[in-house]
Amino acid sequence: MKKILYALLMCILLVPAQLCAAANLPEEEFALGGIHIGDTRAEVEELYGRGNRVADGVDVWNGEDVGIHVIDYGASLSVTYRSSDRGWHVISVHLGVNDVNEYNVKPSEEAQSLETPRGIHLDSTTEDLEEAYGYLPKPKCSNNAPPVCGYFYDGDTAQIAFYICAEHSPGIRSIWLHEK
Fold first, then answer.
1. Beta carbons of 121 and 33 less than 8 angstroms apart
2. How far, in Å, are 11, 16, 19, 20, 151 from residue 8 at the CA level?
3. pTM score, two decimals?
4. In this predicted model, which residue has the larger pLDDT, 120 or 97?
5. If we measure between CA atoms, which residue out of 46, 177, 51 comes closest to residue 118?
6. Phi, psi at residue 28, to the nearest 5°?
């Protein structure tokens, strides 16, 4: 009898731990359109060409001022790079719209062709997210009208977010991959 109670107690204690462990994805899952956090600018240009520089700036990273570039590669794909002793490398990848007024615009076929390692792309649905990742995180929704809801998946060093404005479309309209 004691063994059964002990086994039951262990199951009760370990099930929540397993559920929490499922929340962190392996690092290889954090890619969008073949671009990974930490890729060099040359590696991205090999995939997408030179792109058009949209913005330059300075940021503080590890207590040091570093250069930042944002480059638009077309098809609503933009990549943010940070300068370091390794050169310019990816710290953020954004695909899709970033304005709720544009959520009713259907993504181009080219933009829809860019996807995560698990096949999620613009216009994928929450059902697709749940099937691909095994669970659907609780959404974080904006307070504006119409609300935009983000579904966030975490790793040790990166996060990927999928944004949906259900009032305009059941599909994802924006994907943001960034380092933590």
1. no
2. 5, 13, 17, 19, 33
3. 0.83
4. 120
5. 177
6. -65, -15
